[in-house]
Amino acid sequence: MSQVFLNTTQILPHDFQLEIVKAFLTIIVLFVTIFVSWKFGQVQWNIYQKKRETDIDILQKFYLLYGEFKEVSKMWRVIKEKSSES
User: Fold this and answer.
1) What does the DSSP 8-state code read for residue 51?
2) What does pTM read for this prediction?
3) pLDDT, tens digit, 9 for 90 and up, residues 35-44
């Protein structure tokens, strides 16, 4: 019985070292995964923001041009009515 106990005490430090190595590798994988996902998420978010800014800019230009078109069409209608009265 003392031999079995001795064998387990001899194995225990090796198992403990193995568990330390496993834990260290797990922590490394965890940090690498967090870093990669953070970078990927940040890139995706920047792309989304840029697309949204572009969409808003295009929409503002569209409304500006549409407003000018409506203004010109109203002026055209007034000029046309005045010319038909004369």
Assistant:
1) H
2) 0.53
3) 999 998 899 9
